[in-house]
Amino acid sequence: MGAYAIQIITAFLLLLIVVIFLRATASSVKYEKRISRFALISRTDDEMSLFDSFFGRLWNFIHSFSNLLRKNIIFRNIGKGYEKHIPYEKSNYKHGTDFLAIKFLLGITLVFCELLSSVIRLSIPNVTIVVIAFLFGFFVADIIWYTKYNLRNKRVNNDLLRVVITMNNALKSGSSIIQAIEIINKEFNGPIKEEFSKILLDIKYGLSIENAFERFANRVKSKDVRYIASAIGVGDKTGGNVINVFSGIQKYISNKRKIENEYNSITAGSFFMYRFLTVIPIIFIISIFILSPDYFRPLFTNFIGILSLTLLVSLYFLYIAMTNTILRGNRYE
Questions:
Q1: Is the pTM of this model over 0.90?
Q2: Cys-Cys crosslink for 235: which of 17, 162, 245, 321, Cβ 3.0 to 4.6 Å?
Q3: Which structural domain, as residue segments, surrounds residue 203?
Q4: pLDDT (mean) for 238-256
């Protein structure tokens, strides 16, 4: 079992190295095109490199597979959950089922590597290992995408105070809310620019400013944005002064950020110990399992072992739940 685990990990690392190499090569091609106009013999824009051609065919294959998945209503509904990972500028030709297609192809690739490994070793493939390889390839992409999604939302929340200050200054100078949104769309870069481009598009399609900000809050899962949407809605319904509304929003978010920074500085050491103690048992178990697969066999072969394993796993998750509740439950809202 340990040998199979090592083979799966090795195959995944090789696949990761190939992906990193291809991305690095694609970046070098972009740099080459950027500086080619300064060379004596420049390349024309319609020429395609080997790796550009490879990636183009790969994406064509993924889109073809995605179109097959889109015909099924179940896969189509699941794919809607991945649309939040699509950048605004790529929303016209990318679909949520493209992510499902990538997940299936990664799982099939790892299964193929395991089958190829069995053929080389002249042994019968283990069904359990094949299933584990497919599930690992199928779900590992979710970890990457959701990590990028959380980092993106974090960048949006970090820029939110600057956005509110800019909009407040624009309103004080006589601009309307829509003009203030257009200023944000022009002066800012990164994820916040993409989100305000979507807000402008929603308003052009006839949604109210409150609903546009509500959709923004649902996309980034931000309570601050939801507070902004509620404040705009209340001010619009009661006929309040928009400048005073945004001044109050600016003061609220500014005070909240100060308290959050103080809280994070106080609990930084506790969070580090919590994460460290959470990861150490998993690393310890994986290391022993790879070195000696039979070491944990007594935990699965008799009643006392199963009872002990159940108790240990329950205590582990209870520790995670209680510590997470204590550290995050008192966070300033």
A1: no
A2: 245
A3: 155-247
A4: 80
